[in-house]
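Exercise: predict the fold of this chain.
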Amino acid sequence: MSAVLDQMLPASHPLADIAQKVQDGKRITREDALRLYEADDLLAVGALAEFARKRKAGPGKEKYVYYIHNMHLNPTNFCVETCRFCSYANPEGKGKAYTWSVDQVLEEARKGAELGINEIHMVGGLNPACDISYYEEVLRAVKAKFPNIHMKAMTAVEIEYMANLEHISYEDTLKRLVVAGLGSMPGGGAEIFDEEVRRSMHVKKTPADVWLEIHGIAHKLGLKTNATMLTGIGESRENKVDHVLLLRDQQDLTGGFQCFIPLKCYYEGTTIADEVEEPTPEELLRDVAISRLLLDNFDHIKAYWIQLGEKLAQIALSFGADDMDGTIGEEKITHAAGAKTPLQLAKDKMEFLISSAGYTPVERDTVYNIRRVADLTGQAVTPLSERVAALAHSK
């Protein structure tokens, strides 16, 4: 093993055989991943993921952590689905549902454009009033007004819903949206692929095979996409590992995933808090680290600060993550369920969080072209041990 891994995980360490696989560039197995979830030595798991992250980054980029100057835009929150973990979607009867006109979407986009964003992340509920023609009009209007802003939009769930509304194929749906201005796809809607968990959460939308099929089609059309996993909805560790392995298999086939984002559920406004176990910070760090180790064919793992919180996201950078998402603007979906993180982060704050964790902030575009490497040489770095201690003290 390398000197670093040998120091952290000597031959007598219970994870030494897995460490050897990581060192040799061999794939870890389902059984390996479950052992990593059960291992007492969390820091050793993190050290393995950090080794894998640095190797994936390549020479000269070992300390790079990416972020993007972006905004979230949600044209509608009305949804025909009734997933039990969702506090964002509001049926019309609650009096909270909205659907924006194209002009309203443009006005929201203008606010982001004035701040210099280079990406709009656009997702919404499954609303029969928002069919493919509506989204074609939205995409065309935004691209005509703000041609330099990349449109990352439409989850696989939305693609499935629109295709069914129009009685056309997933491929034809995607082709029409690409012509209108779709630049890439986010990874939302995957939740947990396990059908038993999905049934208990009333998740009727987009089962695993369909979600994977749609992303595979997008990849073959040249679209880059992301992938997610939602935890804290009654899943087991086995469910999580199986979910990630399905993503790894799909990436082997079509190769278009850029980034994996482990997500956690927030429970305010839902009915599930008393029947599921909320993930601990330690479990969330394992999700980040083990996904980095399993997903050897994904270039990036994201520490999504909106959900993890700033402190835990910083620690996750030492557990295999190399991306903190973006400045975001106003985020609605997680905050609707009770997240207490800030609604947005200015670029300088984002760069401070990255650099004070000991990494180099890199502003990127949607497809990971580098726009700027920040030079914050000399800034004080908070040691990992202090960051972990501060997190424990904040509980």
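Check your answer against the key: The domain at 70-342 is CATH 3.20.20.70 (TIM Barrel).
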